[in-house]
Amino acid sequence: MKETTLTMIDNLIKRYPALTVCRESIDQAIEAICASYSNGGKLLTCGNGGSASDAEHIVGELMKGFILKRPIGDDLYERMKSVCPDEADYLRDNLQGALPAVSLMNAVALNSAFANDQAPDLAMAQQVLGLGKKEDVLIGISTSGNSSNVIYAVQMAKVMNVKTIGLLGGRECKLKGLCDISICVPEMETYKIQELHLPVYHLLCMAVENEFFDA
C-alpha cells in the first residue's frame, strides 16, 4: 500500500482507538478489494435494514469521487471525442473515474419476485449466483453476524470463488467463521456496532480510491 494510504489507516485508529483490534483485518480488506479491481473485478455489497443502507452507501462512495476528484484519463477522453465530439468536453469535465460496485439491495423487482416465487432468504444468494465472478469481492454487513440471507449470500460467494469480507460486531457469530476476512468492531449493541461500521467502510473506500487515483 502507498504511504498515504497507510497514513489514512493510522489516522482512523487515532480517531477511533477501539478499532485498533481491527487493524489487521482492515488492511486485509483493503488489499483484497484492490486486488479485485486490479484484476478487473467488482465489489458486491449486502445487508439488512441499516446495514442495507450501509451497503448502498459504500457503492455511492466507490462509483464516483469520494475524497479525490478522479479526473477522466486522456485515453478515455480520446475515445469520447471519437464517439461524441460535440459532448466530449462536457463528459470529461463532469464524469469521474469509477470503481465498479453493486449493491444487492437495490434490485427491487428481482428481489421481490424471487422472494415471492422461490425463497425470500435466498434473494441475495441468487444475485451472487448471477453476478459473481472469481475476480470479485462480496462485503456482507451484519450487526448480529447471523443474518440468514447474508449467510446464504456469503456461502454462494464462496461457491463462486468470490472473496468474502464480513463487516460484523463483537459477538461470536456464524459469519465470522465463514468469511475470508472478518472485520469485527468491538461493540455488542446494534446501534453502537453501526456507529463503528461507518468509519470502517469510509476508510475502505478512501483507501482503495487513494490506491487507484492518487497521483
Characteristic terms for this protein:
single chain; 215 residues; alpha/beta; Rossmann fold; five-stranded parallel sheet; 55% helix; globular
The end-to-end distance, rounded to whole angstroms, is 14 Å
Largest sheet: 5 strands, parallel
* Strand adjacency order, main sheet: 2-1-3-4-5
CATH topology of the largest domain: Rossmann fold
Total count of strands: 5
> Which whole number gives the mean pLDDT?
98
Indicate the multimeric state: single chain
Shape annotation? globular
Q: Give the strand content.
A: 5-15%
Helix content: 55-70%
- State Rg: 18 Å
Element string (H = helix, E = strand): HHEHHHEHHEHEHEH
Number of helical stretches of at least 4 residues: 10
CATH architecture of the largest domain: 3-Layer(aba) Sandwich
Q: What count of structural domains? A: 2
How are the SSEs ordered, and which strands pair?
Elements (H helix, E strand, L loop, with lengths): L2 H13 L7 H16 L4 E4 L3 H13 L11 H10 L4 H7 L6 E3 L4 H10 L5 H9 L5 E5 L6 H12 L3 E6 L5 H5 L2 E4 L5 H24 L2
Parallel strand pairs: 1-2, 1-3, 3-4, 4-5
Helix pairs in contact: 1-10, 2-10, 3-10, 4-5, 7-8
Walk me through what this model shows.
The chain is of the alpha/beta class and 215 residues long. Strand 4, helix 9 and strand 5 (181-184) form a beta-alpha-beta unit. The chain has two domains: 3-63 and 98-213, Rossmann fold (3-Layer(aba) Sandwich); 69-97. The longest helix has 24 residues, at 190-213. The protein has a five-stranded parallel β-sheet with strand order 2-1-3-4-5, sandwiched between helices. The protein contains ten helices and five strands. The chain starts with a helix and ends with a helix. The model has no long low-confidence stretch (mean pLDDT 98). The relative contact order is 0.20. It has helices at residues 3-15, 23-38, 50-62, 74-83, 88-94, 108-117, 123-131, 148-159, 174-178, 190-213; strands at 43-46, 101-103, 137-141, 163-168, 181-184. 55% of the residues lie in helices and 10% in strands. The radius of gyration is 18 Å and the shape is globular.
